[in-house]
Amino acid sequence: MAGKGKTGKEHFGAYVCVFNRDFSEILLLWREKEEREGIEIKGWGNVGGTVESGETAVQACVREAKEETGIALKPDSLVSVGIKKALETSPRKWMIYFYAVSIDKDTDIKLNRESRGYGWFGKDELPERTLDTKDDILGWWMLAEKASHAPHT
After folding, report:
1. 112 with 71: CB under 8 angstroms?
2. Domain tally for the chain?
3. Which residues are paired to 117 by β-bridges?
4. ∠ CA(105), CA(110), CA(113), 5° rounding?
């Protein structure tokens, strides 16, 4: 699906859960952003952002990973692990696509100004103040692990 980005009351986002090769740890970025609609954005989150006009969610993940961490992901290495969307009754419509990828943990991370730091975390050591719920993160983790063990054609 090609994204529409932010148009009026619509928003399409794409995030990628970055794991190490054996899926024992996830890379999270410490985010400190300006307030959005009265809400302060501050906490640990995945790599990603807005799907720009004419861009697919996968293309947005690849672009955002390069911009935010310096990591060059290959589009065919991303695996879909979920979608979150606004309730039908919500005045603001939004949809966020989540993907997963595994990289070598010793990959050089070069943060841009959107993040103040990063860390690798195991399932039992997820930090406080995650931007997504820990249940969501663990659910994506499980789906990513399953996809990594699926036979590839």
Report:
1. no
2. 1
3. 30
4. 135
Contact 3, 51 (CB under 8 A): yes
142: helix, coil or strand?
helix
Average pLDDT across the chain, whole number: 89
Question: Which residues 6+ apart lie within 8 Å of 26 measured at CB?
Answer: 17, 18, 19, 120, 121, 126, 137, 141
Q: Which of 133, 140, 149 is nearest to 97 (CA)?
A: 140
Q: 3 pLDDT exceeds 60?
A: no
Report if residue 1 sits inside a domain.
no
CATH number at residue 127: 3.90.79.10
Residue 125: closest CA among 141, 104, 109 = 141
Quote the domain boundaries for residue 119: 10-149
- The pTM of the whole model exceeds 0.90: no
